[in-house]
Amino acid sequence: MKRIALFVFLGLAAAISGCSKNEKKGEEKQASSKLPVFALIDSSAYDFGTIQEGAIVEHEFKFRNGGEYPLILNNISSSCGCTTPEWPKDPIGPNQTSSVKVRFDSKHKAGPQVKTITVYANTEPAYIELRLKGIVNAPPQEAVADSTTAK
């Protein structure tokens, strides 16, 4: 009889804890559905192709707030000082569009390049990564040779 009572107790305990977990998941899902959503209109990566060293590349990553509440971009950082971002400081309302403008200065950056721009916002997840990539051609060797022989 004690064994039956134990099994009944354990069964009820499992059923009750399962219900509370489902309720919590439902509450979390409801809360996250109301968060702002950083929805990119284009790709999260931009390939600028092949450029000559010293050229400046600019690109706008367009996005929309796909959530129910205002989207706030808290901060944006880049993986290199040669890449500077500009972003809206005012909240972006639900279904409104905006953009993050990124400028890459290729001076002294010969070779394959991948620059990461991290956007921090009041979203879940709390950040999204954007990328600029391409190849920077070094200046011709004859220009370097001419400057050293001129001395």
Describe the structure.
There is one protein chain. The strands form two sheets. The protein has a four-stranded antiparallel sheet, with no helix packed on it. About 13% of the residues have low confidence. By secondary structure, it is α+β, with helices and mostly antiparallel strands. It is built from two helices and eight strands, in the order αββββββββα. Strand 7 and strand 8 form a beta hairpin. 28% of the residues lie in helices and 41% in strands.
Chart the SSEs and their pairings:
Elements: H1 2-34, E1 38-40, E2 45-52, E3 56-65, E4 73-78, E5 83-86, E6 97-105, E7 111-121, E8 127-137, H2 141-149
Parallel strand pairs: 2-8
Antiparallel strand pairs: 1-3, 3-6, 4-7, 5-6, 7-8
Mean of pLDDT: 83
Strand order of the largest sheet: 1-3-6-5
The main sheet comes to: 4 strands, antiparallel
N-to-C series of helices and strands: HEEEEEEEEH
Distance between the termini: 103 Å
The helix content, as a percent range, equals: 25-40%
List key phrases describing it.
151 residues; 4-stranded mixed β-sheet; alpha+beta; 4-stranded antiparallel β-sheet; 2 helices; 41% strand
A few lines on this structure:
By secondary structure, the protein is of the alpha+beta class. The protein is built from 2 helices and 8 strands. The chain has helices at residues 2-34, 141-149; strands at 38-40, 45-52, 56-65, 73-78, 83-86, 97-105, 111-121, 127-137.
